[in-house]
């Protein structure tokens, strides 16, 4: 029996990864009604990370936590045995900003720490934290405070939330945090290799995406530098230049410098949680994808990770996407046999976003015809619509 493994990321602003997979599977079955289609939603550490864990058999653990501007939001983490998967985007992310209004100076990661604290309280001893899509640049200070850290000003008072307030900090007390985190292992899922500070740091590179103007960006970078100085003085180790410290507005820094976390490419963690190597067994074709295939795709994004795993197993991979900006040569070098953008069917981007599901189903019929039909002499050959 023909077996197709469908492992897409979300089409941001259009379809979840599971919805992408369902649309593709429907198209495959239109051409090959008896084919086995297995959908494994994936993510790279940003939004969709918990959904991917749930699809892999984890249990949803709902709760409430502080959003990026302090309002309470409904969120959840995923759990299997003593392992929790926490998604920063779902509690402290840009999508959680009230009315979509940026708060670059005051947005906090506190809610993410509250979710981790809840998981630990429930008995989890291992935590995977996906950190893409953050709304703030607070150096992970909010997350640490939710886990018991005290960040005090010169008068011994707690400083306010947000990155700008770090400039007022004088003392870092980790006593309660150390007690709470004893025996807990944290892994951060991220594809970012930026340091905390400087021209490639969290504020300079990502601050503008979160609403910071040039003056605010400079203020935040200075505040993060002060924060890094105090952390180094408190712990005896300076991690401001560690690759990945700039992830999620500096949450990566807090995780490594204070919580002794390991940093790992998000897609690699998700594939491991999904038991992807076993899913690959006996597959004739792997189909992956995301909303836009571009240069970032080739640097740790989900489709590239799926392609690498499939290529290692000797299984051909094709990609579906909303639009593609990469050349065939670059895609083939990354392991993709072919690419199928929705814009090949309809060049109107708005139409592609609003009609993504039926367009994906139609694309999948072409994939089945060109890559799975035993009668087709061009099966498994590079093809574009």
Commentary on this structure:
Belongs to the glycerate kinase type-1 family. This is Glycerate kinase. GO terms for molecular function: glycerate kinase activity. There is one protein chain. This protein is an alpha/beta fold. It has two domains: 3-42 and 275-371, 3-Layer(aba) Sandwich (Rossmann fold), CATH 3.40.50; 49-266, Glycerate kinase, domain 2, CATH 3.90.1510.10. 36% of the residues lie in helices and 19% in strands. It has 15 helices and 13 strands. The protein has helices at 17-31, 49-55, 89-92, 110-121, 141-146, 175-181, 202-206, 214-235, 251-257, 266-273, 276-280, 302-312, 328-333, 349-354, 356-371, and strands at residues 3-8, 36-39, 59-66, 72-80, 83-87, 126-130, 150-152, 171-173, 185-189, 262-264, 285-293, 317-324, 338-341. The strands form three sheets. It has a six-stranded mixed β-sheet with strand order 3-4-5-6-9-10, with helices on both faces. A hairpin with a 5-residue loop joins strand 3 and strand 4. The longest helix is centred in the middle third of the chain and has 22 residues, at 214-235. The radius of gyration is 22 Å and the shape is elongated. The two termini are 26 Å apart. Residues 375-384 have low confidence and may be disordered.
């Amino acid at each position: 029996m023909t077996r197709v493994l469908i492992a897409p990321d979300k089409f941001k602003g259009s379809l979840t990864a599971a919805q992408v997979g369902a649309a593709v599977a429907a198209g495959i079955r239109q051409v090959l009604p008896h084919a086995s289609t297995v959908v494994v939603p994936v993510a790279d550490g940003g939004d969709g990370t918990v959904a991917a864990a749930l699809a892999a058999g984890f249990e949803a653990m709902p709760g409430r936590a502080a959003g990026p501007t302090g309002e309470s939001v409904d969120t959840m983490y995923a759990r299997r045995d003593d392992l929790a998967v926490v998604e920063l985007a779902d509690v402290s992310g840009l999508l959680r900003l009230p009315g979509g209004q940026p708060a670059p100076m005051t947005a906090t990661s506190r809610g993410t720490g509250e979710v981790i604290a809840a998981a630990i309280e429930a008995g989890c001893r291992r935590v995977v934290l996906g950190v893409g899509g953050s709304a703030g640049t607070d150096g992970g200070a909010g997350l640490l405070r939710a886990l018991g850290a005290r960040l005090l000003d010169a008068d011994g008072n707690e400083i306010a939330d947000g990155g700008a307030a770090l400039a007022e900090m004088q003392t870092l007390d980790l006593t309660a945090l150390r007690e709470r985190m004893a025996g807990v292992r944290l892994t951060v899922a991220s594809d970012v290799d930026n340091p905390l500070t400087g021209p490639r740091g969290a504020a300079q590179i990502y601050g503008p995406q979160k609403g910071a103007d040039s003056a605010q960006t400079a203020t935040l970078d200075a505040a993060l530098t002060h924060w890094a100085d105090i952390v180094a003085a408190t712990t005896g180790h300076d991690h401001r230049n560690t690759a990945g410290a700039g992830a999620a507005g500096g949450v990566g820094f807090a995780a490594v410098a204070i919580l002794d976390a390991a940093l790992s490419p998000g897609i690699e963690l998700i594939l491991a949680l999904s038991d992807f190597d076993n899913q690959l067994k006996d597959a004739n074709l792997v189909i992956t994808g995301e909303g836009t295939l571009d240069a970032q795709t080739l640097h740790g994004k989900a489709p590239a990770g799926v392609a690498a795993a499939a290529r290692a197993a000797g299984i051909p991979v094709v990609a579906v996407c909303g639009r593609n900006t990469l050349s065939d040569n670059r895609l083939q070098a990354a392991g993709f046999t072919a690419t199928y953008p929705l814009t090949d069917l309809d060049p109107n981007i708005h139409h592609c976003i609003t009609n993504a599901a039926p367009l994906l189903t139609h694309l999948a019929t072409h994939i089945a015809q060109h890559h799975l039909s035993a009668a087709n002499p061009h099966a498994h050959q590079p093809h574009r619509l």
